[in-house]
Amino acid sequence: xxxxxxxxxxxxxxxxxxxxxxxxxxxxxxxxxxxxxxxxxxxxxxxxxxxxxxxxxxxxxxxxxxxxxxxxxxxxxxxxxxxxxxxxxxxxxxxxxxxxxxxxxxxxxxxxxxxxxxxxxxxxxxxxxxxxxxxxxxxxxxxxxxxxxxxxxxxxxxxxxxxxxxxxxxxxxxxxxxxxxxxxxxxxxxxxxxxxxxxxxxxxxxxxxxxxxxxxxxxxxxxxxxxxxxxxxxxxxxxxxxxxxxxxxxxxxxxxxxxxxxxxxxxxxxxxxxxxxxxxxxxxxxxxxxxxxxxxxxxxxxxxxxxxxxxxxxxxx
Amino acid sequence: xxxxxxxxxxxxxxxxxxxxxxxxxxxxxxxxxxxxxxxxxxxxxxxxxxxxxxxxxxxxxxxxxxxxxxxxxxxxxxxxxxxxxxxxxxxxxxxxxxxxxxxxxxxxxxxxxxxxxxxxxxxxxxxxxxxxxxxxxxxxxxxxxxxxxxxxxxxxxxxxxxxxxxxxxxxxxxxxxxxxxxxxxxxxxxxxxxxxxxxxxxxxxxxxxxxxxxxxxxxxxxxxxxxxxxxxxxxxxxxxxxxxxxxxxxxxxxxxxxxxxxxxxxxxxxxxxxxxxxxxxxxxxxxxxxxxxxxxxxxxxxxxxxxxxxxxxxxxx
Lengths: 317, 317
Known about the structure:
Two copies of one chain form a homodimer. Chain A is an alpha/beta fold. Chain A has two domains: 4-49 and 148-305, Rossmann fold; 51-142, 3-Layer(aba) Sandwich (Rossmann fold). Helices cover 45% and strands 15% of the residues of chain A. Chain A has helices at 4-14, 27-33, 51-64, 78-90, 104-112, 124-138, 149-166, 185-197, 214-220, 242-251, 260-274, 284-291, 293-296, and strands at 23-24, 36-41, 71-74, 94-99, 116-120, 141-142, 176-180, 202-208, 254-258, 300-305. The first copy, chain A, has a six-stranded mixed β-sheet, sandwiched between helices. A four-stranded parallel β-sheet of chain A has the order 5-4-3-6, sandwiched between helices. In chain A, helix 8 links the parallel strand 7 (176-180) and strand 8 (202-208). Chain A is globular, with a radius of gyration of 18 Å. The mean pLDDT of chain A is 96. The interface between A and B is medium-sized, with 18 and 18 residues.
């Protein structure tokens, strides 16, 4: 069980390597939502996404505990960069298995951190086979994108900072904190730390209709597959693991799904009004708030903006 | 002559209505430039651009001094929004003459602030004729986009904040502060306040090659026209006035020109690495720094990022 103490240790471990990111507000979006929104800007995080946190927490421990002499993982994007970045900090080689369909800007960024990219077919099976091959050849240690307590503890530190900065002490606690859900690493970390630091706060997830596995798993209690996978939110296509599902079932209030047009509209609203670049996956929680105003009216709401790594050559506008 | 006291009064006057905007840094861009860059993020300002400052300082004085019962101006974009926004703050009607070619997002924003948009042909003559007609019909007071001491004093407050926050007291003063130049309101205000608060700091302007009037005027001492006007930097197409030229000749060190491809590359670098949305005009000073590394190597540099009002349907990527 991931205790508060373990998350605090994770935060202390990664703090020298990460940004304590900004929290922004926007009057126009507040008016549109009928609520008071606080956006935790992990698009300004190292590597352009919150995944730096979990990747660092895992890789720093691999290095400190001498668990291996190289790191590997599979990822469609941000976790790949996170592991490459983290491996460079500790001086270990990194081998990153990426689907050949991943955005070029993300492959380039991984190579920019000095890691080796190994391309594979865009299926979970091909990705896992690629990682097994790397491990057999190099003895590298796997840092899984989400099915790893060290990664979850790292991801939890984003909501930890948000709560510490805007929802504790003399300040009114958040009514709701929202995060998107893909494999569930961020969501389960967010749910745990919110339970520890701000127990009256609901945690709600946003999920794309075109990758709607988490809502099914949340209801059935089993890890389910999505009925179909077709969404612009390319960071959220993975399914939960037993580990993340258990935490989510215990500590998350609800999962709300949104369509791709709703995601794109929310993304465009943030670009036009907040003047910051967020990736489609990132816009899912805001899209959920705008879709269900009755559930959020008048609330103080925290939203984790997860990343800003967009291929500018392939925008949906 | 615009004294330090007048700029301080302008800042006190507009402070309740504006954001004290963030200053961001980025390691990748510093490495690329070989210098230490501080970006003053006026893209996060009210109306999405620094022009809120000058517009407010003028309109607040029109209202307080009972100089008129309506406001008018002509502008291709951000000044239009600034005046519309400022007029709404004081409860005066605003009539904004805009070229019919101005981005739709800017026309919509002006109307969103409750102002009336009067479209005209995209020439300076048509714009000035449009304003004269409005003044004759409505008795509105003109707030010129740059040829107005009150506007210049307002624009000066952006660099004032930058210097106060990062270049005074125990901190090393800036070696250089850069701003783009169109009509010269921002540049002359920036040059004046820098002279007052940080006299060892050079002020340098960036100008598009496709609207290169200021560099000619700077050299000749006369207000010159650009040889041709064709640039993506749509906020910088205007020529200087006698007023702004005099200040610029007295207090600006140099004007550097950049091509549209250089502007687009700098804009893309900021979008991809800083994850913030800036308009093309805004990228001109960074393009100048990247083009002339010899002139800026090792320096502490402030750059005014002027605005983020981009038509997402018409991106140059």
